[in-house]
Design goal:
This protein is about 65% helix and about 0% strand. The protein is an all-alpha fold. The N and C termini lie far apart (about 110 Å).
Length: about 375
């Protein structure tokens, strides 16, 4: 009898053990499924968050975005940015952020906070502390956009692993460089204009300039290495990064109050018109490379807009330039410059750039830019 009970108990234990094993296996499978699902949702959220930063065409329809009043606010942001760039370089060269060889991070952050507050005050002039009255969600989104764009900017610094430095190392390098270049205007002969430098696409290969104004092209950098870049050039480039970081912060702060500021920009107009142009023609490898290279050199106010334009080129679709018409906000000279540059690209890089399709494109472009599109040869003069 006892033996029978023992066997029965053993059988029950074995059965319970099997149930436990099956339960554990089911839990593991479910955990794996949930992990996989979580990863999928994460990807969707990341993609959704990224697309949320691209042009919102519905918003453009709802608001009067291409107005002189909004353009005047943009000009105030630019003026404050230029003044702050000089102020920052001056304080760096004078050692204002160091005491007994130690970086005073609090002083640096206070100055940065004042700069951001100044941008916010342009849009909320009646408030003493406009940043404190900012929607928290929008503020955090702006911080996220700034962080991503600064990381990508640092990836572009030639020959220097800036992204691997800590804050003290960055500060020391910038301070050393500031002894060579004391004023932001001193950079202008080399960086005119200062541009966001962005590789952005495998299609660019070595054609995208790493340094503006012809210091050295990416292809030369790959072939010749550091010997092609002098120390003054590297010092100047490193200081230009300071200005570019301030630019990212300025325009992302402005976007909290006015998300359409990035579109009131001649560089954006040129980029949109260029992508629309290439969407009208069949592209080969060289014309595709030329389009990406041209977009990579634009000083757009948001790096997300560059990605948007890259994707339009890759998918061979138009970004619909009629949605961004703003001829009244640009001088006639600037509009003519855009028209000439686009016409030159069309004739130089696009097969069929001299045919009837190109003639229709020129007429439509002239209407959008409010310029008289003369014969193609005259547009290329000068």
């Amino acid at each position: 009898l006892s033996s029978l009970f023992w066997k029965a108990r053993q059988g029950a234990e074995e059965e319970a053990g099997e149930v436990l094993l099956l339960t554990e296996e089911a839990i593991r499978r479910e955990a794996k499924r949930l992990d996989s699902r979580r990863a999928e949702i994460g990807k969707v959220l990341m993609a959704y968050g990224e697309w949320m930063e691209f042009p919102d065409f519905e918003e453009l329809h709802k608001v009067e975005w291409a107005t002189p009043e909004r353009s005047a606010q943009d000009a105030e942001v630019v003026a404050l940015l230029e003044a702050e760039a000089d102020h920052a370089l001056r304080r760096i060269s004078e050692g204002k952020y160091w005491e007994q060889g130690q970086l005073q991070a609090r002083v640096l952050l206070n100055d940065l906070g004042d700069f951001v507050e100044g941008i916010a005050r342009i849009y909320n002039p009646e408030s003493e502390r406009p940043l404190l009255e900012t929607n928290l969600e929008e503020l955090l989104k702006a911080v996220n956009r700034v962080s991503l764009q600064v990381i990508l900017l640092l990836e572009e610094v030639p020959l220097l692993d800036v992204k691997d430095w800590n804050l003290r190392q960055v500060a020391d390098k910038v301070r050393t460089a500031s002894k060579v270049v004391r004023k932001y205007e001193d950079l202008q002969p080399i960086l005119n204009p200062v541009r966001y430098l962005w590789q952005g696409s495998k299609f660019l290969l070595a054609s995208n300039p790493l340094l503006a104004a012809g210091w050295i092209a990416g292809s030369n950098l790959v072939r010749e290495g550091a010997k092609k870049i002098g120390k003054r050039s590297l010092d100047g480039y490193l200081l230009s990064v300071v200005r570019q970081v301030l630019g990212i912060i300025a325009w992302e702060t402005a976007s909290i109050y006015d998300r359409t500021n990035r579109f009131r920009d001649p560089e954006w107009v040129y980029g949109v018109e260029l992508v629309h142009l290439v969407s009208e023609f069949t592209l080969d490898r060289e014309s595709l490379r030329a389009a990406f290279s041209e977009l990579g050199a634009l000083a757009l106010r948001s790096s997300y807009d560059r990605i948007f334009l890259y994707r339009c080129v890759a998918q061979h679709v138009s970004p619909k330039p009629e949605r961004f018409i703003q001829a009244d906000l640009m001088t006639e000279e600037r509009r003519e410059e855009i028209a000439k540059a686009l016409n030159s690209f069309c004739r130089k890089h696009l097969e069929g750039g001299k045919g009837k399709k190109a003639d229709k494109w020129r007429r439509d472009l002239g209407r959008r830019l409010a310029v008289e599109m003369m014969d193609p040869e005259s547009l290329n003069e000068g």
